[in-house]
Amino acid sequence: MKLERSSLSWSIKGLQSNAPLPRCGRSIAPSQAEALTLPAASKKATRKRQISPEGRKRIAEATRQRWAAKKAAAVSETASEKVSVPKRRLSPEGRKRIVEATKRRWAAKRAAEASKTSGSPKTAPVKRGARSKKAAAS
Question: Where are the domains of the chain?
Answer without folding.
Answer: 2-37
